[in-house]
Amino acid sequence: MTPISSAKPTLAVIGGTGAEGSGLALRWAAAGYPVIIGSRSQEKAATVAAALSAELPAGCSPITGDENAAAAAAGQVVVLSVPYAAQEGTIAQIAAACQGKVVVTVDVPLQPPKVSTVWRPAGGSAAQEAQTQLGEGVRVAAAFQNVSAAHLKDLSHEVACDILVTGDDKAAKDIAIELARAAGMFGLDAGPLANASVVEGLTALLIGVNIRNKIKSSGIRITGIPRE
Length: 228
Description:
Elements (H helix, E strand, L loop, with lengths): L10 E4 L4 H12 L4 E5 L2 H14 L7 E5 H7 L2 E4 L3 H15 L3 E4 L20 H9 L4 E4 L19 E6 L2 H13 L3 E4 L6 H18 L15
Parallel strand pairs: 1-2, 1-4, 2-3, 4-5, 5-6, 7-8
Antiparallel strand pairs: 6-7
């Protein structure tokens, strides 16, 4: 696997004010990545960034906040973590700023109120629709769809969930796998972006497992692979 670089790039976490995005942002900042939280509101982004920064141990990389387009422009790698219903509109705001970059999408297509039932959008998956909307100038990888936000902000908690990474560009997938490692998880290549529909569908399945077992943090582990 090729690391992103020896000097860690700035990550723009679009939708970073939500539970999943903010939890990942906190873990990446703790691992030494400069992070910019993106939101529709610059004020909200700055407020959440300040709150997250207060949770970091001394000496960690900074977390700042800005509105979506500015955050995406400042980020070297863009992470998209918004509700599926907001995906198309959010991408429209940031598409120009994402050109030439890697975008890691965390989005999952869920259809309320039946969020524990698998549903596939017209484009095949949220990740494929993101790639289509962003265009050929952006390399999209899909990851982190199956990890619960429940314990992400507890930096001492070991997250017992593997990260399945899909995409049509190997270097983009390597970046997502490295980000999984930095967040304390095990990432692995799960094939082309067309496979994102399966990975996204697992989220609905896990929500159902959580509901039926009265828990909040079920995840998946892939067996048979040697680990460091």
